[in-house]
Specification:
alpha/beta; Rossmann fold; 11 helices; 6 strands; disordered N terminus
């Protein structure tokens, strides 16, 4: 039985079909006094069932698992329990898998090579509404954005919308963006909704992926006009 933790602990569920990986993740998070492991699952269906039972704040999902894959589990969890943050864990840095995970509604994507500090920070930050990526995954996404820097996005945005997309790509929350642009959080949410409508996406993950993919373009545009 886990040691008793502070009532403000972040409750985490770990899902991976490899026991050695679960032990490793548990060990990495054990040094964080504000994080509590409440359950462990060995496949996607078990992760869904245990999330329903234990109501964790964060679910760490291996991308490739038997029975129900991590990405399919993420999609079902976000549809049923949108308040639960879902972070994907993967041993491979595959762009298509990252894209599928983000469209499934995942709140983050981490390489299994992350260290204790980076993993704990990701768990904390995702509970604050941020999208989290390990440094290696972010470098991959930014590399793809750099490749596309000379091509315009497939939609037309206003100057304010371009500013917001650039800040979304940097991982800022709506509250952070509001403070930076001196507008209300509600106004930011309105702009985000309009951008998502133009993109034809119905969740924040689609907006984040678009922002990351075109971050170089929008950063250059906003810097040129500042």
């Amino acid at each position: 039985m886990a040691a008793e933790r502070n009532s403000t602990s972040i409750r985490v569920l770990i899902a991976d079909d490899h026991e050695i990986t679960r032990i490793g993740v548990r060990r990495l998070l054990s040094v964080a006094p504000d994080i509590e492991i409440v359950a462990e699952a060995t496949n996607g269906q078990e992760a869904i069932d245990l999330t329903r039972q234990n109501k964790p704040d964060v679910v760490l999902l291996d991308v490739l698992m038997p029975n129900v894959s991590g990405i399919d589990a993420a999609q079902r969890l976000k549809a049923e329990l949108p308040q639960v943050s879902v972070i994907m864990l993967s041993s491979s840095e595959d762009e298509k898998q990252i894209e599928r995970a983000m469209y499934a509604g995942a709140d983050g994507y981490l390489s299994k090579e992350v260290g204790s500090k980076e993993l704990a920070e990701a768990v904390r930050n995702v509970t604050l509404g941020e999208r989290v990526f390990s440094r290696s995954i972010l470098a991959l996404l930014e590399g793809k954005a750099a490749e596309a820097k000379d091509s315009e996005p497939p939609i037309s945005l206003t100057k304010r919308e371009e500013e917001i997309v650039a800040l979304v790509a940097k991982g800022l929350t709506s509250q952070d963006i509001a403070k930076k642009l001196f507008i209300s959080p509600r106004t930011v949410e309105t702009h985000r909704a309009r951008i998502m409508d133009k993109l034809g996406v119905n969740n924040a993950a689609g907006l984040v992926r678009f922002a990351l993919l075109h971050s170089t373009y929008f950063n250059a545009r906003t810097n040129d006009e500042s």
